[in-house]
User: Fold these one by one.
Assistant:
Number 1:
Amino acid sequence: MKTKLFLLIIIFCTIITNGQNIYPEGNAGSPINEADSTGPWTTGGILTTNATDPQSGTLALRFESVSTDAADRRISYTFNATIGETYNISIWAKGGEIMNAPAFAVWQDLTGFTNPTNITSSTWAEYTFTVTADSTSPIIRIYSNGTGVANIGSSVYIDSITITSSATDTEAPTAIIDLTSTNTDETSTDLSWSASTDNVAVTDYEVFQDAVSIGNTGGTTTFNIDNLTPGTSYDYTVFAEDAAGNVSLVSNTETVTTLADTEAPSTIVDLIASNTDETSTDLSWSASTDNVGVTGYEIFQDTGIIGTTSTTTFDVSGLSPNTSYDFTVFALDGSGNSSLVSNIVNITTLADTEAPSTITDLLSSNITDTSTDLSWTASTDNIAVTNYEVFQDGGSIGTTGGAITFTVTGLSEITSYDFTVVAIDAANNTSLISNTETITTADVTAPSAITDLSASGTTETETNLTWSASTDNDSILNYEVFQNGQSIGTTIGAVTTFNVTSLTPGVSYDFTVYAIDPSNNTSTISNTETVVTLSDNTLPSTVSDLSASNTTGTTTELTWTLATDNIGVSDYRLYITDLDNGANNTDFLIGSTTSPYTVTGLNVGTPYNLTIAAVDVAGNTALESNIANITTTLDNSAPDIPTNLLAANTTDTTTDLIWTASNASDTNEYRVYQNGGLIGTTSSSITMLSVSGLTASSTYIFNVTAVDLSLNESGFSNSAIVTTSETGSGGIPYTDLNANLDTVDWTTNELFANGNVGIGINPQAGYSLAVAGNIIAEEVRVALQGNWPDYVFEKNYNLPSLLEVENYINKHGHLENIPSAYDTKTNGISVGEMNAKLLRKVEELTLYIIQQEKKINELSEENNNLKSLSERLSEIEQTLKELKK
């Protein structure tokens, strides 16, 4: 009781604190009571609560107009007022998703309101009004013009609404002291009391049950309560309220105890069963009645409960065919009272005479020498399949208990068996026999080992192996022969001989043999037969028809009839004698079948004697052939003249020369001339030369010639005229003061700038040349100071895997070590450095291609092995067919 009193005091204090706000606290517009309700506002549009962006509390009201009709584009609120009394009204509002001139407008019976007051912001703003009531039911309105299309009209949000009276009514109504209850039964009671009095007027009464508000009466002095629990005690109190929000003290407490429910529901007398089949039936009955209320029914099957229901039907399943059952039902109320037992309904389920479906997909798997696994798809039945019986060669070998797999054991090796299955239901109906699954058990017995392997007829390069036939429980498919532990082939069928070829003379070999049966069982290793081939002391035949043709200044072409040998020619040795220099003789191996053969690297205008000798696999070298005598031709034609000689980077003592290579294919070197005198040479692959030791403020003429292998020299290239700069100046600076003088020769002089140069743009810090626009040139040469990326081909280069490349691309959006689009746009790129980076990627790609080629070759070899194996299996299959015949 002390706890209830404490709660009443808290409620009372709360009501007194907020008593001056006469705005009803039952919707989201008020921060005092955040109920998810839109009342008491009215509208023809769309009014909802919104929790996305409340100004205060957790909810706001959202109003959306849906047409141009006045009722559909406004919301209204009527509050109880005293005529002539002043009210302070505060409303927080903001424009919604579509703002079409929302405003406070057309208020009724309120003097002092400015019409309209526009809502101009899409953020929360407070709007305040001080108005005087001209009637007891003034109206507040908010307009939001619609578009005439549903759900896309103008919208507005409101929240935190307060309406307070400026009157000084602070007197609370008198407390109620005669709260009484009447007509109390099991679930309800009626409350009543004498009217409270007030200096102005009592406007409402609030009723509490066990200190929790359960409703307002709207001014009446009675309140009906239902949905109570029978045999339960409740405490009731009431508060009176006036128009100013003043609340009376708590009333007297009226304790009510509802009547206990001891009355049982009525007995069911019309329980019936219908739709009875082999495994189910449907029960139904008329509803039982009760003084309070029936809450459910319990269903019994042969005195055992099988379920409950709140309806008057129950479907019974899981019954057995051709079986008798008794069913009864009890009605229950909320107090646990149970009716008497209903009438008994007896049913007998239908008999099951339908056989299960026939199994058509019996399969075997995991076949060994003594067992196999059987499996099949479940059979179907009008009731249910309860078992499967398995048959082997027509005899039952067991049941599965409903499983659709069965492991057969105790079989014999290399034996054929027929299996079948039938399905069985609970009524012992049996399906037709399934398809027949025929198997032959595996062969796991290896052939006997060979113990008498021997060799005969051994020569320098071959030998003949023989042995006695192996025995097996099935048959011998073939024999596999091994040479020094490596397989060298199999016999065709079960023959017991094997000819070994391609041996090396004078070498020892170890041979073994395995027997293989059709199930690929392999015998243990045979005895080892060691064979030593005969030594080869026979020389290859001597070449006698060596001839030379198509001789040039540096090459000649040799042809001859290939030599013969008792074993085989493996190579030829070429002997070259320079007749102008007898000490300059060479000999080297050139391959086994090299006729014709082109000799290169000869000196022009030189006589030579050429001979060859065949070499066999044992290293025996034949006598030298006949001599082919030749004299290389003289080259009197000069190579093409180099072109486009240019000078660059000229200082007071140095300059760099660059030229375009000669078109002659036999160019051997370039010679550089300064004022007609030779100052240096370069190889045929280098077309530039740095010249030093020049004199300041001096003019020089440079030319280049090409020289071929016959030392023929071309004429002079175009002249590059260079004038060195003054001593220590590093160059002759051109400025806007002297650039256009007649004394300045732009044709022969160079432009030199100590600082940075800008063309069409100011010079840029860190860049020697900045150009605003395009650049065109016949050639651009970039001399890199960094490493050229040939390091990619070094042995220790860490080539990333393609998976690592993919992961980097997915993470960064560009190749590793290559600038991103953002970096290029921000910082630009260095042409030379970028070419090096791109070449690095090309070289990495080359390595990937080489790896892929190796993998393709490996797969090709594996494919060939599989093809060979397939051919062997085909041969085995053909042999088996012949054996069966």
Number 2:
Amino acid sequence: MTTHSIAATGPATETRTDADGSSAPPPSAQQASNAGAKRRRVQERDGLGALRTGVWVVLAFLVGLPLVALALQGIQPESRQVFGDRAVAEAALNSVASATGSALLATLAGAFLAVVLERSNIPGRGALRWLVLLPFLIPPFIGAMAWMALLGANGPVNKMLASLGVDAQLSIFGGWGVVFLLAVHSYPMAYLVIAAAMRRIPGNLEEAARISGAGTARVLGTVTLPLLGPGLLAAFVLTLVANLSDFGIPALIGLPERYTTLTTLVYRYLASSTTSNPLPAVSAIGLLLLVLAVLAVLAQRKLPSGSQLGSGGTGMKLELGAARIPVLVLLWLWVGIICLVPLLALASQALLPAPGVPLTLENLTMENIIRAATSPNAVSGMGNSLLLAGGAAVCCTVLGLGIALLLTRGKHRSNGALDVVATLPQALPGLVIAVGWLLIAPMLGIFNTSWVILGAYVMAFMALVVQSVRAPLASVSSTLEEAARTAGASPLRALLDVSARLAVPAALTGGVVVLLTAVRELTISILLVAPGTQTLGVSIFNLQQSGDYGGASALALLVALAGILGLSATAALANRRVDT
């Protein structure tokens, strides 16, 4: 039993009398404060812990479950038997060769563009930067269709050569065409990575070499390029992994000449009616690609980032001298031949009534575009793509925002693992993601439904939102969040009321990028497509395969223009927000 007594004289004090008659002083203000802080810490752990637990549960379902299922199926004896097939060995060799060769070409092209457009005195650099990135804004399989229209048997190039008396019959089909087009569609990524690394090179090192008497070529060879080593390696690894997973270019350009890669071989297994159960074989191939992708990611993470060099924002301008005009002409030829002419060829094929019809004003018609855009398959594909891409954009925005908040604002020992799990799917081939979801779809009861495609989309593209939010949020001071906590808000509420609200514009931008990327995706969709779930990319691919080149080109042209306009507008808005 506990009683309380108050002294009759002196300052009012409260004592506590226990059952044995002993008294104890009341808790001090410091003790009360510590107890309150302890209670708040428990509440804080509960709030942030619930958020972190929820994110981990979602990632375990979206990322862990498909990859574990793929690994377990891929190591089974019946799955490993596929590696004894000569066709698999040939496809693996072609995949590695085409991915490595195209990544090397893309890295060399990206390095050249980064040096010229970021450091030289070339005029019109702003317009050239945007134009050389056009292949990045066009889906690779649509780029392949554009080059097929350009270098087809009845294409404008062969017609022009024939008119000049040259019987060359140039063709884009075959292994070399696969390597070339993979390089064309991946060099913009290499350029962006190398340009970012170049901005971190301190200009004073180049200036010191120039003061010592070194010319432009020697400064590049002895200072700039050696310091760009990590950026060059990172660009090579990223493009290698991306090109290893591409399906559209090898399918459209390689298969007509029997040039098979692992992605097209898996598609052949899944589409074949002679194989009763293709999942063991495709799981083994998917596991092989998964191992290669993980090794590439680990290798990239081991590379020095070069961040210790500083910002390097005031790098030395390289004077090209007499080479300025030839380099400028080369850049505009690059833009014209690589970026614009194939699109014009695709447009001509879409606007002409049939292949081989002369390109004259009288022959131009909108019939292909109207017919393709209003056909039942196209309308269904557009509807499915918009629904799936929109759903993926919403899910990725919410999930990516939560992950980025935990990584940038929460200090926890699991942040390293969270970072790896959240960003790993971006480096995985689409084939790996699709096969993983093929394996778990039956046990989840979503096989042959749109849900399996949606889950694969969210897994594949959530890292885009994480990256969009993480960089701007990391540059924002935590002062406002600390002020909210001082005012009595729990860390979770301060995180949601302050940091989350500041990050919402960046998250929405990332969501728009997910929408524009998913709506024109092909590799995942074509491996997971089922009756009633056909997407826009699959519709275009099927039209091309069925010989309706005009309809396929018409839809492809619309998708390409929408992608260019949408991604360009998103990038412009993001840059404007950063500037303000």
Number 3:
Amino acid sequence: MISFDSSYYPYPSQRMVTYGKNGMVATSQPLAAQAGLDILKKGGNAIDAAIATAACLTVVEPTSNGIGGDAFAIVWTKGELHGLNSSGPAPASISIEKLKERGIDEIPKFGFIPVTVPGAPGAWAELSERFGKLPLTEVLKPAITYARAGYPLSPTLAYFWERGVTAYSNVLKGEEFQSWFDTFAPGGKAPKAGDIWRSEGHATTLEAIAETNAKSFYSGELAEKIDAFSKKYNGFLTKEDLAAFKPEWVKPINVHYKGYDVWEIPPNGQGLVALMALNMLKDDEFKSRDDAETFHKQIEAMKLAFADGEKYITDETHMGTAVTDLLSDAYGKERRSLIGDTALQPTPGEPPKGGTVYLAAADGDGNMISYIQSNYMGFGSGLVVPGTGISLQNRGHNFSMNPEHENSLQPGKRTYHTIIPGFLTKGSTPIGPFGVMGGFMQPQGHMQVVMNTIDFGLNPQAALDAPRWQWMKDKQVLLEQSVPNHIASALSAKGHGIQVTHQSGSFGRGQIIWRDPVSGVLAGGTESRTDGSIAVY
């Protein structure tokens, strides 16, 4: 078990560490966490609980994810670590040339152009079939109930819902977007905190997915509805694209960091960025977390890792540079040598030749899962398949229109993906799942909570509550208002373009569950920057 003093609590928080023995579910929405716990109490395992929580989150936090999004997972069970990449590719009929024929030089954020094949329903079915104990019809019941009967919005959810409706009202102008407004802005406005929201279409879709193990979504009635909606508005996504999709089991990648192994999903995910940054700093000793030199080195390493990520990360089958080269000790040391006393302008290196909502779940038998799913940019593409509640993602926006770029748009190719689950082990012993959701903040959050845990001995809740930084671009760095003033001043003196903000919404929202290998006791933390909740027994 990671050594931390549960009484040491250096940062203000809404919560203390949560302990449990028989099961734990941590996520950003209390109703979803409780749904997962209910499944555990019905005899399900951690994987069943994660599926229940994930499906429920599409209902109770649609501002961040949906049935039409993607998913990734890292599963620990029976002494082994398994990775699942359930991100969908670009449609087979799309290409840079076809977009240019339409006068499109840059992939838009909204509408059908950026829509890729949704992977989340496939992830639920795949996880359930391989590792679950309960049938999907039982596991999805909580989500179906909340969709049909409705639930009251929590405060943070209401804030982001209002913000999303306001933003989408300004940019979504075609009739193809009307179903989105009918679904998420009934009566022409966003629901408020405490208001009841329900979606019968969402409920019937979840029932169809549960009863067919997602076959309806990829080759049945739901696939036909998605195909017809796409054809009506000249989209590229077809029922053939849906039928061709299957989640991929992958081997997680890792770096050894100060006695622990930090695991991520391989590209197309951006977990590689977090690992590259940690690889640069694994030989550094840090005096204190609240020290300008610590912040400076973290920021500089992350900038260099992002520069490499932007250049090299895409669908792994299309990468010209091997992951092992990017994570080699030699390349880590080479990139570390660029970090000096002042802020640098990040550029990619040349390695020697040789990718939201997050949840963590654990049960009393030692099974653990790190799971993440998203529509991207909040509500996604602005498209909801009429009558279904299926909000389609806009992941294709991350593709490059430059045919020479590693992440160039190509038919059937998966794009550079932001959502990443994390996992920590010590030798062959599992420590547990962790994650920080939030676009390109995610690898930055992963690095910070890992270092808070390993370098500074913070307990799971304190590791999440600690003030965060966020590299934006070039030398620009955003700091939470809770970062001490002396650190902000010292970073500014080192050449960082510092901006301090009281808005914490962009700094990610995370969860952690660590398991004591001797006692089996679970120690959990959940995000104080949102409506985060831990359900435990």
Number 4:
Amino acid sequence: MNRLFFALCFSISIYSFTQNTATPRSVSAPTISKQTVPNTAKPWTFWWWMGSTVTEKDITWQLENFAKAGLGGVHIIPIYGVKGLEKEAIPYLSPQWMQMLTHTIREGKRLGLGVDMTTGTGWPFGGPNVTPDMAAKKWQYTNGKVESVLTKQAVKRAAPGGAGLVLDPFASEAVPKYVQRFDSAFATVKDLPRAMYNDSYEVYGANWTDDFPNEFKKRRGYDLQSQWAAFMDTAQALVRIDYHQTLAELLAENYAKKWTDWSRQKGFVTRYQAHGSPGNLLDLYALSDIPETESFGSSRFPIKGLRVDDQYEVDRYGTPNPLAMKFASSPAHLLGKKLVSSESTTWLANHFKVSLSQIKPQLDELFTAGINHIFYHGTTYSPKNADYPGWLFYASTNYGMNSHFWKHYPLLNRYVERCQTILQNSQPDNDLLVYFPIHDLWATQARAGGGIHLLEVHHVDKWLLKLPFGKVSEWLWNNGFAFDFISDDQLQHFQPEASGKYKTVLIPATTYLPETTLARLGELQKMGVRVIFMEHLPKQPTGFYRQKERNEAFQKMLQTWSGQNFPSLQDLESIKPQGLEILLTSANLRQETWAKEGLKYIRKVQNGKVLYFIANQDQRFSEGWITLATSAKKVALYQPLTDKTTLLPVKIEGGKTQVYLTLRSGESCFLRLDANVGEGSAPAVQNLADVKNVKNTAPPLPVSPQAIPLQGTWKLEFLEGKPYLPKPVTLTQLGSWASLSDSAGYFSGTARYSLTFDLPKGVTSAQKITLDLGDVREVADVTLNGKKIGTAWSLPFRLDIPANTLKTKQNRLLIEVTNLSANYMRLRDAQQPEWKKFQEINVVDIQYKPFNAAKWSPMPSGLLSTVTLEASKN
């Protein structure tokens, strides 16, 4: 780890905060001219180039459509090709490939789209220029001697011109030699992508490098082979810790840092996925300009009405976890990095089955975990003349132009842009630092191949949640304490006065602790930082070398900490866990007690004023008074979904600020405390926090509305879609149109429901009335009496009806519903399965079996439940 760089990052703001550009600028990063800085508030997308079989004409056509849909940029990833088009494939980094890249970047500038690229094809780094001396290695113990042998791992999903061995992540000369190929390719290129990208680690079985014995002895003070028996003994931890520590240092210095330094020297910023590696993720993420996490699968939120694909195998692939995401956002918060990105919604559901209503909760989870630069996973380059469904990547989700939600895609993108405009232009407001005791993890026996701990985002239960660190972090997350993680190295450079926010460091129960960390905690306590040890003090210092002598000094240092209160994990799991709550609040840590009701949040500061992003990802809360941990005289609620702002009822109880919040299951909002309404908004987002939409005084408390089911005869007409339009029908009871007939069961497209109704007695058009559409599959465009009311695409499917839109008699309601493409693909895959024509893995389902939609049952489509008017009594 470059400690000078780390120290500078704490004292120097490394990013420019240009309105709505949000591009990171490190002290050693390249300067990017203002006119070429892309829009990062808008979401970006992974863009797979299949075989790099691309043309300038189709690149332009797709980029123009991306810009119209509201994207901010693309990330080019060359992968395997299309069967039958081998001759059209363009070799990676060839002059023709660089011409396609240059055309993309220039067109991106014209359209306001940024362009990133992977430093390689597929994943992980590797290729034809990786010779055996540069390739990934593992140790082999033969005849009493440790030998270095090749893992023989090849690049996964490699594109033409990118196949070859995987790079050794621990060797000192591997990265410098590897990037020479890129030096040559970019030697005469003037138009550069914004960023170079490094995908998640995925170097399997690699646990050694040729110079490892020398590096180990230099760093740890003894010969590893002399203690090989202790290293192999599962009951002996100290040598195993030293081994992992050495791997982690080599990975950071020889791989992450050298790749980052090279990227910056060439004029690129870096996006880095450190997860999956055997290093300390906090230190690795810190090296990049834009740390990037990953959201793979469905989080299984208990949101009312949220559908989860039951074919997804949780035991096999795990689920997204906000604590894993915080490993990327925490170093960004510590170092002042403006952007934290995410590879988002990978395998959220099977192909052709992902809805916008499933996507939004996953993005909300990312926002609450500190992520503010969304990359969709993703979009496949597909020629304009390709037959439906076009070219597809083997994994869902499909954000391309053939996606069933393409025409409503701009609605999702506007929501993301509004959120990220605020999140990127505000600073974290966390009180607490939680120390990550990685040495306790290294002391345990690893289950991964190669006998090393791979800190992946998929199965956090294997490493994060099983530690006391994970348990206490989960408790903090669920009980409303705002925190970031910190590593040993980061503690050494943490300056409380410079940060101005973190008041306490919490040390989870740990056995092994570096002496330098214990000494630094003592220094921080003298600076006024509260240090809390959970359960007990550390038992001994890390490392095998001179352990007895060092342990004696360590125990003397511990004596200064004895006598304090050590809250235990049993306190957290008991009926009355107030012990730790009292301890933390007595340390002046703010607790948002309403988080216990399933409301997830991130607290930030903008222009000196506190704001919250809150997502209701449970069913325990709907509305009520919540107590804010920060005092305020007025609180404005901003709804990024509708772009409307209102003032909330506020009262002071016991000296604390309470607001009356209505936030139904699945909804999200921002709260601004004592800020001028519209403060911090960006002109690029239409009407963000529009002052004209804000009441000058807080409204009276809402009263339970009157629910009025809409009854009568519905007419259902099929407007557009595949394979053909079923006949119109009339319905007295709503339900899935897929059950009406065989043709309706195969239909994918848009159908219109129409109903004429009268207002019941006692209800007037002047009242506040909401249309509750119930269970919608999947998106509903609503028109009432000739006026467009809005589009319901996320949970809950509700739309406010503007005042005086309803009439006493003969109201005409039109609801156009668009369903998934899954039902049509049942027929398409049975009749014409030849669309699956891709090399290597081709197309697989969510269980990684050969894809076959013909065996699916029809997916429910249309309006599935009663449509209701809710009339407020105010």
